[in-house]
Structure formats: structure tokens, C-alpha cells
Please model this.
Amino acid sequence: MKFEKLVPNIFYVDINDGLKMFVDCLGFEIGHDERNSHNPFCVLEKNGLRINLFQDAVHAKEHNPEFRLVTKNIDEVYEKVSKSHPEFLHPNLKEITLRPWGAKEFALRDKQLGIRIQEW
Model:
């Protein structure tokens, strides 16, 4: 059995909050756009990664995911994010920190989810 991608579904009360995090802050692009539909939805893409964003208040209140984005250039990512969107830096991990398990990490958060940026 072989899988090629894991594509998370992320639910926001207002899809624009997710777009600010992923498109404006992290540089994802909108690959499919149904923001003007009855059930607003977008597919975001970057470097072979894909995320499905949904505007759905009921599911947004039930699901508060946290996930990791792994990179080989955490210093570059941190520099860009800390300058362009410092409001997303998580207060408990707002600087690049070498963790006991050997990874360098910093964290982001918005109204809906937490993201750890990680480099091994």
C-alpha cells in the first residue's frame, strides 16, 4: 500500500483568517477557489503540499488542529514570518529553539490552529 500525500482539511469560521495565515504569511497559492460559493472552500498549494480550507463555523468550533511544517531552512522561514506577520508567532515558542529531541522549532498560531515550523 502506497500513499503519496496527506491533505488536511482545516475549518475556519471565516476562511479569510486561514488565507491570511497560509497565503499571506506562509506563501501558499490558491490552486482552487470557491470562496464565493454557498460553502466557501479553497485548495492551497506550495512545493507539492496541499491544504483544503473550508469556511464552516460548526466544524471550526469542533476542530482545532496542530501540525508541523518541516523545512531545511528554518532561519529563512523565521526571518520572513517574524518580519511580515509577527502577530502569528506563538508566545510559548516565538523564537527558533533547539528542542530536546534534536529539532529546531518555532510556532505559529491564529484563531483556529497551531503550526510548528521544524528543521531536523
User: Anything to note?
Assistant: The CA atoms of residues 4 and 59 lie 26 Å apart. The chain has a mean pLDDT of 95.
